[in-house]
Calcineurin B homologous protein 3 (Ilyodon furcidens), 217 residues
Amino acid sequence: MGAKQTRSEHDHQDLVEKTGFSVEQIQNLHKRFQQLSGNEETISREHLKSVPALANNPIRMQIIEAFFDKRNQHGNELGSYETIGFEEFLMVMSHFRPPTLRTTTEEKETMRKEKVRFLFNMHDTDGDGKITLAEYRKVVEELLSQSGNIEQEAARAIADAAMLEVASTNVPNMRPDDFYEGITFEHFEQILKDLEMESRMHIRFLDVNTTKVHCGK
């Protein structure tokens, strides 16, 4: 029993260093992982599709896919997993971790950049490093589909106009007949430079008790 407990504490400490969560937060998230997986060692997309709070979210599938995207494991690997274990789940959850009172300015900037990268990956579905017009159209259509009053053609027109605005901002000397390849991460980061990330990226959709998960006092 003692050896098992020591091994568990060692595993948790390793995850603390990788994710920035405290041991208590990791334990709470592990309980949620077990609830989602039905006490199995891995979870699939089907498990996340059963989360009630995600049912009516217009970008539900993008959120779910983000958990299986290898790019969100704080590495450079491309592709996606069929299922993920607790460590992969925790690595994705770490993108939602808010700064603490002890977080340095440099660390806050790193955390913000990781959050922006996470959002970028959700839109860059083919992993080519650009959010193309087709990818942007899909997101806009899904976001507007909830209203019920906007037809697909109107949604596409809105997406096209928004992308044209982004293109004219990012490429000032762009001519009307020039082809805009898409939004790069640098452009995406610039677009979101004034967005307050902490209040917009949270984990409530997983029904996790945020008073236990949040790092701040």
